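Researcher: Here's a chain I'd like modeled. Treat it as a single chain, no partners, no ligands.
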Amino acid sequence: MEASLASLRRAVFRFAERGAALSALYHRAKLVGAEHLPLDGPMLLVGNHGVWGYETPAFFHLLHEATGRYPLGLAERGFFRIPVVRTVLPWLGGVEGTRENALAALEAGELVVCYPGGARETFKRSQGRYRLRWEQALGFARLAARAGVPVVPFAGFGVDDTFFWPPGEERLCLRLAPGDKYRMPLVMGLGPLPLPVQLTFAVGAPHEPPPADAPEHRLRAFRDHVAASVRRLLVRACHA
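Model: Modeled as a single isolated chain. Structure tokens:
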């Protein structure tokens, strides 16, 4: 039984790898600033999310091409209330975005990707395109301080243009699970496919984390500093 499950897991991972490569090819995806990515050791990448999080496989594919490493993504907890998703997502490098899981991954030397906007950015409406929805999120700042690892900012351009919002978008929403606080917008593409826009990802220089005992006002300042870097990188990605 365990051998069969391991075989299935490998098959799913290989299928997802091919899908990610095809997505990167379809969108002519490119990565700038790869020199800021470490080839080993723990690192926390922090940036913006696109609608539906659709851009993630292509981005992870580019990260693997640039570093030879498989990134680990901190996923929205709501996804883990969906039976099939909570089984398959860890096979593909996604873990539930808890502080304990993130710390364990960094302590293991992983390249960890964090989207502070989470579902707020993934399930944005048309008026929220390319706006960081980090609100008062301090999780990644606390994580970086606790783990003592630098934060590498990144930004993706094109990620909010892969689909478009039809008229009456406010009514065309679904919940991930009963009682879930987020509602998934029903967006449209090129028939069954996303629009063939180019995806460009820009990576910036790492920011040293605050000390482990940093007070909240310093964590807020660090969060805002990283957010400002992501916004600058978004402009760079737009013109790359």
